[in-house]
Structure formats: C-alpha cells, structure tokens
Amino acid sequence: QVQLVESGGGLVQAGGSLRLSCAASRAFSIDFMGWHRQAPGKQRELVARIATGGSTFYANSAKDRFTISRDNAKNTVTLQMNSLKPEDTAVYYCNVQSGLKSYWGQGTQVTVSS
After folding, report:
1. Is 87 helix (H, G, I), strand (E, B) or coil?
2. Are 110 and 89 in contact (CB under 8 A)?
3. Mean pLDDT of the chain, nearest integer
4. Assign residue 47 a region: left if phi > 0, alpha if psi is -120 to 50, beta otherwise?
C-alpha cells in the first residue's frame, strides 16, 4: 500500500505564497503526480499535474501563478503557489497515478484571507 504524506498548507493573506509538498511512502512506478483541490460546496478539481518526463498541465486558474515540480528519485511532488487569491481557499489533495491505480493524500487546508 502506498501512502502520500502532504505538508505545507496554512493561512496566508491574498497576494502571498505557499508551498505544498507530497511524498510517497515508497518507491514505485509513477505516471503522474499532481494536486487537486476541493472548496466547500464544490467538486474536487485538478489544479496541476506533472508526468514522469516532466510535461505539465495547469488548470486555467493556476496558470502563471502556480508551479508544479517533482523529484522522481525521491517520489515527491511540490506545488509552489504565488499570488494567492481568496478563491484559492480549499483543501488540496496530492494525487499519484500508477497505471490504472490512483492514490490520494489526506488533504491539506489552504486558506487565503482577503
């Protein structure tokens, strides 16, 4: 069983920055690593993801503000979030895809005050 351990959430003022990190409990074949978020009353949505080869995808809301990166040797993924807005407030979940399997972290709260 793979466990994903997240860190880095918290409270920040609008315009500030936060850095989220996620580490897999063991090494295994990973296709994609990414971050999703879920705001109260809304569906979970993909924020950004990165493939093993380094290609990235960003939701429109994250483009030009967030940067995703990964360390394949350490099985970690990081989301650098800049210029945060109140609408970025949500629980952020790390997600790892390996073939047909999908693993989720426990979630970390990000709150952006206006």
Report:
1. helix
2. yes
3. 95
4. alpha
Note the pLDDT tens digit of each residue in 30-44.
899 999 999 999 999
Counting other chains too, the contacts that 91-94 makes at CB distance below 8 Å and 24 or more residues apart are: 91/37, 91/38, 91/39, 92/6, 92/9, 92/20, 92/35, 92/36, 92/37, 92/47, 93/6, 93/35, 93/36, 93/37, 93/38, 93/44, 94/4, 94/6, 94/20, 94/22, 94/33, 94/34, 94/35
Query: pLDDT (tens digit, 9 = 90+) per residue, 5-37?
Result: 999 999 999 999 999 999 998 877 889 999 999
pLDDT at 72: 87
Contact 99, 29 (CB under 8 A): yes
Judge whether 57 and 36 are in contact, CB under 8 Å. Answer: no
